[in-house]
């Protein structure tokens, strides 16, 4: 089925080292545009229908586009995994408190380095779990066999241990949290009393799924969505 440059389509990318990914593209895109979106350098090689795709050619000129069978499938082989500019792995980090992100990493990266990258997205003392095992800061991703397409689970230790937390739990209602004069919609996960008699909330933001704990009720208002 023919396709036009004004219409976007999905490309299925299969990494020969393991893992898959989906990209949005159009026939006007060049192969080098795909490698850039994959977070890979010029060392990456893309294969389609058994042939390597030249970096400077457009997808249309190479016949890469949607068909009646569905999305085109491209195989990715990174020629030089030791490249400092190439990003060998795209990991999925799932926050057990809600939300997830995709993060590029290499096998030689340490767990402590990964936590530093995650600190830009999540707060608190971060603990990482893979296949039921907590990852140690001094070891590398390669030590644990973590490669492209793998999922790591994130436990945010932002407050006291679970046993020390108040037992009262409230699921619902929706509130709006004030930050720098703007209001952000969220769902109450837990409500409990502070030492001064005020009310404290644990909330999950509706836009990105991130969780914030220990929010004073005075910084929130009940949403009209209830």
UniProtKB/TrEMBL annotation:
The Ubiquitin-like domain, residue ranges: 89-155
CDD domains: Ubl_ubiquitin_like (cd17039)
Gene3D superfamilies named in the record: Phosphatidylinositol 3-kinase Catalytic Subunit, Chain A, domain 1 (3.10.20.90)
InterPro entries per the UniProt record, alphabetical: Ubiquitin-like_dom, Ubiquitin-like_domsf
Full protein name: Ubiquitin-like domain-containing protein
Organism (species): Effrenium voratum
The organism's taxonomic lineage, starting at the top: Eukaryota, Sar, Alveolata, Dinophyceae, Suessiales
């Amino acid at each position: 089925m023919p396709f036009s440059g004004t219409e976007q389509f999905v490309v299925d990318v299969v990494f020969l080292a393991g893992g898959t990914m989906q990209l949005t593209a159009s026939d006007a895109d060049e192969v080098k545009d795909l490698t850039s979106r994959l977070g890979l350098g010029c060392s990456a090689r893309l294969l389609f229908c058994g042939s390597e795709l030249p970096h400077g050619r457009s997808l249309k000129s190479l016949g890469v586009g949607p068909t009646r069978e569905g999305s085109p499938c491209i195989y990715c082989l990174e020629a030089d995994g030791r490249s400092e500019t190439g990003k060998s792995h795209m990991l999925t980090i799932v926050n057990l408190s809600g939300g997830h992100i995709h993060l590029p990493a290499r096998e030689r990266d340490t767990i402590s380095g990964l936590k530093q990258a995650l600190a830009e997205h999540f707060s608190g003392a971060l603990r990482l779990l893979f296949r039921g095992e907590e990852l140690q800061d001094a070891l590398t991703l390669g030590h644990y066999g973590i490669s492209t397409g793998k999922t790591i689970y994130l436990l945010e230790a932002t407050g006291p241990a679970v046993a020390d937390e108040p037992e009262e739990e409230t699921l619902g209602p929706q509130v709006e949290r004030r930050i720098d004069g703007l209001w952000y919609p969220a769902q109450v996960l837990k409500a409990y009393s502070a030492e001064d008699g005020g009310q404290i909330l644990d909330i999950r933001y509706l836009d990105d799924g991130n969780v914030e704990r220990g929010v004073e009720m005075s910084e929130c208002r009940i949403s009209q969505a209830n």
